[in-house]
Amino acid sequence: MFINRLTLFIILIAVACCLMSCQEVVSINLNQNSLNIVIEGVVQDHPGPYSVLLSMTGDYFTPSLYFPPVSNALIIMSDEMGHRDTLKEVANGTYQTSTVQGVPGKSYQLSVVVQGKEYDATSSMPQKVFIDSLYDVPRQGFDGDKGYDIYVVFRDPPELGNYYRVNAKSSALIPADSIDGRRYRLYTDKLTNGNEMAVRIRAGRNVNPGDTITIDLLSIDKATYDYFHTLSDILTSDQSPTSLAPANPTTNISGSALGYFAAYAVDSKQIVVR
Amino acid sequence: MSGTVKNGETGEALIGAAVVVKELSGVGVVSNAYGFYSLTLPQGAYTILVQYLGFKTAADTIVLARDRIVNFNLLPQPIKIGEVVISGERTNANVTSTEVSAKKLEIDEIKSIPVLLGEKDILKTIQLLPGVKSAGEGSTGFYARGGSIDQNLIVLDEAPVYNPSHLLGYLSVFNADAIKDVEVITGGMPSEYGGRLSSVIDIRTNDGNMKEFGGSGGIGLIDSRLMLNGPIVKDQGSFIITARRTYVDLFLRLSKDTMINRASVYFYDLNMKANYTLGEKDHIFLSGYFGRDNFDYPNYFGFNWGNTTATLRWNHIFGDHLFSNTSFIVSDYNYSSSDETSTSQSEISSGIQDLNFKMDFQYFTNSQSTLKFGINSMYHTFMPGSVTATTSSGTNSLNLEHRYALENGVYFSNELNVLQDLKVNYGLRFSTFSLLGPGHIYTYDQDGNVIDTATYPSGKFIKTYTNLEPRLSMNFLLDETNSIKASYTRTTQYLHLLSNSTSTNPSDLWVPSSNNVAPQYADQGTLGYFRNFGDNAFESSLEVYYKNMHNVIDYKNGADLQLNPNVEALLVYGRAWSYGAELLVRKRYGPISGWIGYTLSRTDEQFATINNGQPFPARQDRTHDISIVFIYDYASTWNFSATWVYNTGNAVTFPNGNYYVDGRLVPYYTQRDGYRMPAYHRLDLSATWILGPHSNLNFSIYNAYDRWNAYSIEFRQDPNNPSQTQAVQTTIFPIIPSVTYNFTF
Quick one: which of A48, A120, A271, B262 has the most CB atoms within 10 Å? Predict the structure, then answer.
């Protein structure tokens, strides 16, 4: 937390030092001939069905919003009680479960066989942590920018080792989660174990009184936290001489696939901005 | 004969002055760090020449019938004024010394080369020498021959300085007004130094004018400095105080933004030193450095860090041949950051403290050999972090355990004239490192989970490492102006810097070697050809080196170093190796002076768990590195200087593709450090108008042709076309002019 602010501050002082904004678009040549499969699978604690998405990587500078989906894969999701569910491909690259149910406290396994290779992953769904309350506070931002701070209050369970992700969506925005730059909000109880936590969502200029904000509190396992944490590092990193070398996110999928498999419990509440 | 070589005008001891016998070629010694020398000769009459850059050579006829003390007081002769430079004035130490990859920077040279905003900075200037590469704009960190940033030992009057940077790295903590000279050793490290693999930056401060009071100062765009010195008792003791403070925060007050204009941003440096001579055989010194950087945004966050060092030294001369120095040194570095918003108040702090006892002896055996031996014992206290939270903040207080360690070194070396033209400096350093209790020591499995915790009481030895470090360098003199030098050294490093970035960042973490972290060690070999020409007007050298570094450290993906009691579980270990050739041509006399340096080099790393175990170029690998420094003194009214640097860009990791996950476009990486940043080059110009004997006005331009060097390259979605990605380059410093006013009194 302090380091992110410090980095912001460094850039701010640096930009303040140079009287104009010294940024320009440059052209970089990348050799782009490696392809890899991307697997994105979730299990949630609502009744289902749950989806697994398969796609491939594409060219870096490609003008496409759409990456080639991968069809005809054999995907099996199973739980620790012996249910095995073979997923059906309902659209290109999208596979759905039919019988598996997501239950907090249980662990789930995913097996994907495609293009002659097998990929496996396991994820455990933690116990569900509920949002106690939501409240909003108007704020004066760093650069004169006004907005709202939305506080999400919940109580962390007494054992150490709880991980959370918070999503915020507004029906008035496109995309819905573009409140506060679509950043990842990931939390651990490393410093706050057992406490009542008040997590702050900074909604910017694009949020107005009367908007309905939906807040999801996801209770995730450590592997899922590590994945989104390292994914978030990539999305916010820059190639300065001082940052560490980026690498693909730490995934819980074996077999050199990109993506993740996450089982999590969700509690959703809404707040209308005053 | 023995004695001290001093500056006749101020009484400052001269370090590295050559005391040679005119009648006996090749016979002579060099004064040590306190100006002391000792020369053993058969009875007789000799002409003794004492030479030092910037001073008139003293030539005295000495009759040696028995042991005697002869002190030399040299008078300054500014080397730049005057067309005629007597050939006897110039030394050929470049060719004759056994120091291989060691370069000395005179303070006058440093003061002629301005860096950003008209400041003179030692750490920035040494980066203009071949073999020493800057870690990037906005950073005082540097790489010496491919070694990483923490492999440099930076000592100020023998005290290690752990974070030598102000203002997030663009300026160092060393105020040039306090400095006497700087020695930069990147290879052939003598056995009296240890604890870091790649370089030693030995900074020695002025003692203070022994004869009269005086001072100097300067007023610049962002900071001002003042130096006061004078005698305590004339010719027996003196003091010097230098201070510097920035007023960047005054500029921030001009901002209309209420967040920025209430901010408090400043740094200061204070150097103090006093010394006193007690009789002919004893001299004591007490010096200290205090510095701090502070950023504070009220009700938002605050950040501050600083170094404190103090050194007490006692020189004692036994008889005529044995010089000793005993030092007690204290060094402290700490930083703290605080979160001050209304809903949470907490402060994180971290640091390292050293207590150090050193004894160094130099025995001038005879004209063929000089022995050095000594002991250095350091007690380290590591404070990896603590969080202090107020009860309403929702954050728990957390204290990571302190760690304690004892690092020792015992060394000897002998500089010997083996044959008429062959000088050898051989030595051995025996170093030990022990991690001490109290503490809880963890053992981890492959995934970083704790599998064992052991508790140790205070003072118990948890883990000890010992290492033998041979050091060897030799000089084969082909003739008075040509020599070949070679060296081999083994060095060990017991302290490691863990960092979220490669620049010197205040939140960097120093950790000791332990049951989980092995010491790093390196072997380096060098071979060089040294030549002076133009009657010693030009010094040149071509040196090749190969360095192999073991147990170097990198991090597991997504490692979170801050406030982590199990930070050792996040480390991975591997090997790094670097090799290269360095060419330096330097002119030190006359109205035109300066140097050209060129380095061609390569540094690679290999870790089992990174890049599929394949070797990859290190971040700091830069194929070409060129520095040209040009200084011109015109008629003692103007001094011009120009500096041009060029280097190949750092190795970086860029993506090879893209994919969609969680509704976001994400870059896909396959090769670590497979690409290069664009090349960096820059021209700095400076003109100093000497208004009178006591003042001058300096104009400087940083980045004179306004090259937009890439500080960072970001890939982001094109704001006009979200399905497309573009590369955006950020530059920190475009062209920046500046004015500074300097005075002496």
Answer: A271
**In chain B, what's the furthest Cα-to-Cα distance?**
92
B519 and B533, same domain (yes or no): yes
CB B216 within 8 A of CB B227: yes
CATH number of the domain where residue A61 is located: 2.60.40.10
Q: Could you tell me the CA-to-CA distances from A226 to A32, B553, B703 in Å, in that order?
A: 27, 21, 42
Query: Does any domain span residue B478?
Result: yes
> Secondary structure of A32-93 in the HEC alphabet?
CCCCCEEEEEEEECCCCCCEEEEEECECCCCCCCCCCECCCCEEEEEECCCCEEECEEEECC
Instruction: Note whether A9 contacts B558, CB cutoff 8 Å.
Output: no
Chain B residue numbers touching A54 (CB-CB < 8 A): none
Is the pLDDT score of A19 beyond 50?
Answer: no
What pTM was computed for the model? Answer: 0.85
Q: Are residues B522 and B434 in the same domain?
A: yes
Residues B560 and B619 in one domain: yes
Question: Helical H runs in chain A?
Answer: 2-17, 222-236
How far is Cα of residue B396 from the mean position of the Cα atoms in its chain?
39
Nearest to residue B575, comparing CAs of B535, B603, B548?
B548
**CB spacing of B295 vs A234 below 8 angstroms:** no
**Segments forming the whole domain that contains residue A67:** 37-124
- Has the ipTM of the complex gone over 0.85? yes
- pLDDT tens digits, one per residue of B302-339: 888 899 999 999 999 998 899 999 999 999 999 888 87
Exposure b/e, B352-376, CB count within 10 A at least 16 = b = bbbebebebbbbbeebebbbbbbeb
pLDDT in tens, A136-147: 888 775 555 677
B399 — contact with chain A (CB < 8 Å)?
no
Q: Is residue B233 part of a domain?
A: yes
Examine the pLDDT at A92 and tell me if it is beyond 80. yes
